[in-house]
Structure formats: structure tokens, C-alpha cells
Amino acid sequence: METPARSEYAMRRATVLASPQQCFDVALDLATYPEWAHAISEVTIDSVDDLGRPSTVTYVAEAIGRSTRYQLQYDLSQAAAMIGWLLVEGDIMARLDGAYTFADSVDEPGATDVTYELLDLLGCPAGLCQAPGRGQTHRLRPAPIQITGREHRSRRRLAARIPRFS
């Protein structure tokens, strides 16, 4: 029996009291993600570009009630303005593509508007995903945003890494 795939699209925006370069630097410090990103338990930098920045990275994270391993290829061609990534391989993911974009805030001088976008397609192991009912199909839809206590702690740890302007 073929297992169903489930796709999700998520987008979040935030205004951060830091420069685009500072936000870029924090987001690109991938090795520290387990310190503040609650679902990520392990990060391995597999390869770096000519400037020593991560280009291929393997993660171990919690996903749908189990541990998962996946590898991402990073696009840093628009450094300080965007970090993009594509899935190279994953044990339960068929797609995990996304980007952070960093732009000077229009509404708050001295701040940065950060946008996070992610498209994932999980090829779920049998029994973990519910197949669509007769005549239904899976569609891309915004992922529900629910902030847990763990995410609040993760955000506080991340916020502590970004120096604030006075």
C-alpha cells in the first residue's frame, strides 16, 4: 500500500530590532540551532563555500513524533538579504525548501523585517499520515501557528543572540 504525502506551506514575518546583516549572521549560525530551535537536536556542517559559510548541512530533528534526519543545500548568493535552502535528502521528507529574507523595516527605522517561508512535503511512514477521504486531495495550506512554552523559550534564547539598537 502506498503511503500518502502531506504538504504544508508556512510563512511567518517578524520585525527584529537589529540590522539585516545581524539577522543574517544569526540565522546562518547553523551550528547553534540546537541551542534555540527546540526541534533540532543535532547539526553537522557537511561542506562550506569558498567564504567558509555552510553550504550543505545535515540535521537531526523531531518531526511527527519521531526523530528524523535530513540534509539541506544552502543558497547564499544573496548574502545578507536572503538565505535559501533545498532538500538534498531526508528519511521522511520528499521536499523541505525555504528561505529567510531580511529587509530594512519600512515601519520601524533601524529594524529588519524578517520573513520565513517553508514548503515541506512529507512522505509519511505507514500509519502516521491520514489519507484523504474519497474525492479529497492534499492541498498546500498555511500551517497553523501555535506557540508552545518550548517555542517561547526558543524565541527568548534566539532574541538573546541579537544585539538590540539603543
Descriptive account of the structure:
About 17% of the residues have low confidence. A hairpin with a 7-residue loop joins strand 6 and strand 7. Strands 1-7-6-5-4-3-2 form a seven-stranded antiparallel beta sheet. With 166 residues, the chain is an alpha+beta fold. Helix content is 16%, strand content 45%. It has three helices and seven strands, in the order βααββββββα.
Summarize the structure.
The protein is of the alpha+beta class. It has helices at 20-28, 33-36, 149-161, and strands spanning 5-16, 40-48, 54-63, 66-75, 82-90, 93-104, 112-123. 16% of the residues lie in helices and 45% in strands.
Low-pLDDT stretches: 125-152
Radius of gyration: 17 Å
Largest sheet: 7 strands, antiparallel
**Number of DSSP helices?**
3
Q: Report the portion of residues in β strands.
A: 35-45%
N→C terminal distance: 59 Å
For the largest sheet, list the strands in their spatial order. Answer: 1-7-6-5-4-3-2
Query: Care to count the β-strands?
Result: 7
Label the overall shape: globular
Rounded mean pLDDT score: 79
The structure class reads: alpha+beta
The run of helices and strands is EHHEEEEEEH
Measured as a percent range, the helix fraction is: 10-25%
